[in-house]
């Protein structure tokens, strides 16, 4: 099913010609395979985010594209040029490293101008281009400093300037924001995105931060264990996750198990010990009949005391539980509601005291249904190492 | 129980101050002995360099003067010749070992070589066996191929001897250079060699400098190999020192020793400045 969905996205979201094309790329270190059969097409001028938990292979994919590691199988093409076996210096790509990798023995200006020096530019032309980059990135007057004399944010901009100065065909960003403190990071996101749009550079951005990927990228590639789990626009991935993994990664960490009979777009949910019967019409093909894993975010739910519910609406999934704890992270009250053996997080405008028996209504639009894995424990499966909603809320 | 606390306690209790004072006696004795062991021979050496006549039972020289300095540095004196020989052999040795140690150290630092530890250990082999039989055999071999008594022969012996420092320290120096710094240069269009010259080499330079200095000092001080392979055609300072000392000419021997001591001390100060802790931590890894 995942494959079908990815295919769908491919044709749906790609009205332009592919510029960078990866075909069934395999890569690994020694015997461990880090990437398996990665297919990806990126259009000219497009901003694509590679999103995944640590160890999913996203940095390996970026380094393979940059030519720092050779793939064990598959091909990398830019336009109609096959780059698969080319050394990194012949690829016309520029990378911003997570550590910035600025050369400590050179000044900021020499760092930025290095690529141009290699191209054999004249000294004055290099100085002019470096000044232009410094102006673009707000580094005026800092060109004479060594990297050790710059702040983290300034280093990050020097690294970006060094990559942009050579006017690369493709810009590769390896978590360049992860070493900045949270507040600077938010503004730099928008700066980089605006710059990329202005210069029209094809950009691949590796990140583990979902929100960062969402606000910066035209399309997001979600990687899981070296494979593409889903590929699509931020909105498509957020509203139509193709698998339980993607749903969890995109914040739908609440999970309950339901029994249902499905046909085409219809899902008839059987009444269970902790849920009422419902019949839903989905915008997507429904999963197989049987045991389902239902995932939803803690937002946009309705929480009411049991017996107080306003209408008897069967187009929602209604879950019966008991409030265990209430906290106020800002905005709305966050309830921990025990449902059967597991528990879910529910945001609501008004707080209900712990111990209340409640009804949680999950609207169809916020509900993601997947066939339950064969041997699922009845509790909430841990959302792999995806971001937890609580942590997100606290850091946002 | 430490001395400062004893001092602070002194105004309050006479017993404590006495104990503090007594505690200083063994300490002073140990420190004094140590100082004597280190500086006694040095002082003796310094006095010998300016002694004209000095014999038993006199505790100090009878006449002072610099006439032996004149003899050592006389245009036809052996010392100047062997000083030049020693320094040029040391410089050739440094050049030779760096020429081998830079590629070898880089390979050991960067490439995933099988048996890496064994390769590193192999450079230690010349030091692992007793020097004498090794050099006697080298001398016999060199004699057959005409290398005995040549500067090249001595340089070769010194290179094998110094290579362990050179390779180990160079490998550590290259390991301390972040791989991403090299890749950043490659990424912007530098060929492998260009990236190495622009980024890796300048960043590893302090470590390489330190290894060069070690090799230089080792070569300057090396005796056994120089003796078997070089003597009597090639006379280095240690050889001169040996023959002067064996001949009872303590003035010449002391002045030569002083000449050997100066670069050693100067270079140790430089090494201490160049060899950063992060490089040192990677030696032999």
UniProtKB/TrEMBL annotation, chain B:
<feature type="transmembrane region" description="Helical">
    <location>
        <begin position="83"/>
        <end position="106"/>
    </location>
</feature>
<keyword id="KW-0813">Transport</keyword>
<feature type="transmembrane region" description="Helical">
    <location>
        <begin position="195"/>
        <end position="217"/>
    </location>
</feature>
<protein>
    <submittedName>
        <fullName>Spermidine/putrescine ABC transporter permease</fullName>
    </submittedName>
</protein>
<keyword id="KW-0997">Cell inner membrane</keyword>
<keyword id="KW-0812">Transmembrane</keyword>
<keyword id="KW-0472">Membrane</keyword>
<feature type="transmembrane region" description="Helical">
    <location>
        <begin position="250"/>
        <end position="271"/>
    </location>
</feature>
<comment type="similarity">
    <text>Belongs to the binding-protein-dependent transport system permease family.</text>
</comment>
<keyword id="KW-1003">Cell membrane</keyword>
<feature type="domain" description="ABC transmembrane type-1">
    <location>
        <begin position="83"/>
        <end position="271"/>
    </location>
</feature>
<dbReference type="GO" id="GO:0005886">
    <property type="term" value="C:plasma membrane"/>
</dbReference>
<keyword id="KW-1133">Transmembrane helix</keyword>
<dbReference type="InterPro" id="IPR000515">
    <property type="entry name" value="MetI-like"/>
</dbReference>
<dbReference type="Pfam" id="PF00528">
    <property type="entry name" value="BPD_transp_1"/>
</dbReference>
<dbReference type="InterPro" id="IPR035906">
    <property type="entry name" value="MetI-like_sf"/>
</dbReference>
<feature type="transmembrane region" description="Helical">
    <location>
        <begin position="118"/>
        <end position="138"/>
    </location>
</feature>
<feature type="transmembrane region" description="Helical">
    <location>
        <begin position="28"/>
        <end position="51"/>
    </location>
</feature>
<feature type="transmembrane region" description="Helical">
    <location>
        <begin position="150"/>
        <end position="174"/>
    </location>
</feature>
<dbReference type="GO" id="GO:0055085">
    <property type="term" value="P:transmembrane transport"/>
</dbReference>
């Amino acid at each position: 099913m995942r494959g079908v969905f990815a295919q769908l996205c491919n044709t749906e979201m790609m009205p332009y010609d592919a510029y960078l094309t990866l075909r069934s790329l395999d890569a690994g270190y020694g015997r461990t395979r880090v990437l398996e059969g990665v297919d990806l097409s990126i259009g000219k001028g497009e901003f694509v985010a590679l999103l995944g938990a640590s160890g999913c292979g996203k940095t390996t994919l970026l380094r393979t594209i940059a030519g720092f590691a050779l793939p064990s199988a598959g091909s990398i093409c830019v336009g109609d040029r096959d780059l698969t076996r080319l050394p990194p210096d012949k690829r016309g790509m520029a990378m911003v490293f997570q550590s910035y990798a600025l050369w400590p023995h050179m000044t900021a200006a020499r760092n930025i101008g290095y690529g141009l020096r290699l191209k054999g530019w004249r000294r004055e032309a290099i100085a002019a281009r470096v000044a232009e980059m410094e102006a673009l990135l707000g580094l005026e007057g800092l060109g004479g400093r060594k990297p050790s004399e710059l702040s983290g944010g300034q280093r990050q901009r020097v690294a970006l300037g060094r990559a942009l100065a050579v006017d690369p065909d493709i810009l590769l960003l390896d978590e360049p924001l992860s070493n900045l403190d949270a507040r600077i990071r938010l503004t730099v996101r928008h700066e980089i995105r605006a710059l990329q749009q202005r210069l029209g550079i094809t950009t691949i951005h590796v990140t583990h931060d979902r929100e960062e990927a969402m606000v910066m990228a035209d399309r997001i590639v979600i990687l899981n264990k070296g494979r593409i789990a889903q590929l699509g626009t931020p909105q498509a991935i957020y509203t139509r996750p193709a698998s339980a993994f993607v749903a969890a990664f995109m914040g739908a960490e609440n999970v309950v198990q339901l029994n249902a009979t499905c046909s085409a777009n219809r899902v008839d949910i059987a009444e269970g010990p902790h849920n009422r019967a419902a019949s839903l019409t989905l915008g997507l093909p429904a999963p197989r009949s049987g045991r389902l894993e239902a995932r939803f975010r803690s937002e946009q739910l309705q929480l009411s005391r049991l017996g107080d519910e306003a209408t008897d609406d069967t187009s929602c999934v209604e879950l019966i539980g008991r409030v265990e704890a209430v906290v106020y992270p800002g905005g709305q009250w966050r309830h921990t509601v025990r449902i059967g053996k597991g528990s879910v997080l529910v945001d609501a405008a008004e707080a209900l005291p712990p111990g209340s028996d409640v009804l949680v209504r999950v609207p169809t639009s916020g509900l993601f249904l997947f066939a339950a894995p064969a041997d699922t424990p009845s509790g909430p499966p841990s959302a792999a190492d995806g971001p937890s909603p609580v942590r997100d809320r606290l850091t946002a | 129980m430490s001395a400062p606390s004893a001092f602070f306690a002194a105004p309050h209790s006479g017993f404590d101050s006495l104990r503090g004072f007594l505690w200083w006696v063994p300490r002073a004795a140990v420190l004094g002995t140590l100082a004597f062991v280190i500086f006694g021979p040095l002082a003796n050496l310094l006095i010998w360099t300016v002694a004209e006549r000095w014999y038993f039972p006199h505790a100090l020289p009878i006449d002072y003067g610099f006439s032996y300095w004149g003899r050592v540095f006389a245009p036809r004196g052996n010392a100047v010749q062997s000083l030049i020989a020693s320094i040029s052999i040391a410089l050739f040795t440094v050049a030779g070992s760096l020429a081998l140690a830079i590629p070898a150290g880089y390979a050991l630092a960067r490439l995933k070589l099988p048996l890496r530890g064994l390769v590193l250990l192999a450079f230690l082999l010349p030091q692992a066996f007793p020097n004498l039989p090794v050099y006697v055999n080298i001398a016999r071999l060199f004699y057959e191929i005409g290398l005995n008594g040549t500067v090249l022969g001595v340089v070769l012996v010194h290179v094998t001897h110094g290579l362990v420092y050179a390779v180990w320290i160079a490998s550590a120096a290259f390991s301390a250079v972040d791989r991403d710094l090299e890749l950043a240069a490659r990424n912007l269009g530098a060929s492998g060699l260009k990236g190495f010259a622009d980024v890796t080499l300048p960043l590893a330079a302090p470590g390489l400098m330190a290894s060069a200095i070690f090799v230089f000092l080792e070569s300057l001080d090396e005796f056994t190999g120089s003796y078997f392979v070089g003597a009597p055609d090639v006379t280095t300072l240690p050889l001169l020192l040996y023959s002067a000392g064996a001949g009872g000419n303590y003035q010449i021997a002391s002045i030569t020793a002083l000449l050997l001591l100066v670069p050693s001390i100067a270079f140790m100060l430089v090494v201490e400045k160049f060899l950063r802790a992060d490089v040192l931590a990677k030696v032999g890894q």
